[in-house]
Fold this protein.
Amino acid sequence: MKTKNRLRDNISIIFLLILALLFLAPILIVLMNSFKGRFFISDSPFALPNADTFVGLKNYTSGIAKTGFIQAFGYSLFITVFSVAAIVLFTSMTAWCITRVKSKVSTIIYYLLVASMIVPFQMVMFTMSKMANIMHLDNPVGIILIYLGFGAGLSVFIFSGFIKNIPHEIEEAATIDGCNPIQLFFLIVFPILKPISITVAILNAMWIWNDYLLPYLVIGSNYRTIPIAVQYLQGGYGSRDMGAMMAMLVLAIIPIVIFYLTLQKHIIKGVVAGAVKG
Amino acid sequence: MQKMAKKYYAFFTLPTMIAFVIAFLIPFILGIYLSFTKFTTVTNSQWVGLSNYIHAFTDDKNFLNAIIFTAKFALVSVVLINIFAFTLALLLTRTIKGTNIFRTVFFMPNLIGGIVLGYIWQLIINGILINFGVDITYSATYGFWGLVVLMNWQMVGYMMIIYIAGIQGISSELIEAAEIDGANSWQILKSITIPLVMPAVTICTFLTVTNSFKLFDQNLALTAGAPARSSSMIALDIFNTFYGSMGYEGVGQAKAVMFFLVVASIVLLQLRYSRSKETEI
């Protein structure tokens, strides 16, 4: 029985190892091709670079120059960090308020926000981008407000679920001690929300960092985020610089891998918590 | 507390609600209205009744093709992703070495953005197809299976995590009892594990369906709908209707409303289904 199990486990491990290699292969192939000359990529993507095809970091320098990658990274980072901060702060405030103050308005706000989660982006993309344009929100600062509006549904939903399970007694005691609601929220409630705030922050960060269509429509003509910069390289048919493309793909993946490896546990927990989004 | 907080109600809710109304609510209502009009910008609309909805199907076959393509894609993805994810979860819940490293690897593609994923797979798939003298834009069939492979690569690790949570939720006493009664591992899988992870199956199925329906970035990067628009999914078709040719904005918006209704029905179906399951237990 024991030896049979060990044999079965070994087969499983070998199977998993092969599969893990297959999972990593696409990324490794892109990495390998990013060091090959632009005309040696499409025809033989599985060939290792050799003396003729190896170009060092040339693809990286030309790709960064063509797409304005450094700026794109800056815009992506700025928009993601400040949108996530705004979402965590404002939606936790809203969620706490509508959960604790039972009224018709609270119920309406809750259901409006939750209902917005099921609406696909294409439904509002045209009118929203026109609206952003009219209201001068078509810049890296204005788009933060748009992300707050779009992120509100899921974030308020997750925060509310967590807040419902916090006992009232702590807040009542603090009120008796003379806290007003603003002090109460920031000194007592917000620290309690820390674990769920991390979840909300990660979910929104992954969404906003990788988002393509929304920033493309709202700010794409003047400001390129990383996904827009990658898509920009596509250009017209046939004119594409495959070398630069490979280098940009690698540069787009690196921040995600670093982020993932440092915060792995939180990320897996957070992303799966978003499964309710549907 | 209720009274106290009411004075501060606006302070707590207004920032979120202003953003929500500007970014979502007004565009949403305006979107429904505009689907019944002819317009090129938001301000010059003319009421045309249901004509946009009819034109969405009669002007060309693109929308209908996109719906069929998307439905087929969702069906194939649901089956394959669930099978792979469940198998992986089974293997990784055994007490073998290195399960954490494997989980890390399998989950990682889920975090990479759709545009980047699309170009990664375009390179790989074209690299294989070039041996047969074609590329992925040669026929919609290649685009279809390319997207299926891509979607599996992206989603399997995610669904695997949900299944792992489901399998770990099964009490070990139940399995030990079955072992003592002489059940073999196939019987345990069939009569204990699979029935008890059914809630996870429901979640994964609906998640895959809604994700498949909303797929856009991957579709745009991998094939951009080529050849012609035959590998366009619904979301990409709507985008192309809006921004591809002048004068079709109303039709695009009508398509978007129908798309919304389809996605909303799927989600509501899921809610009803999981609620009815909950009351059974």
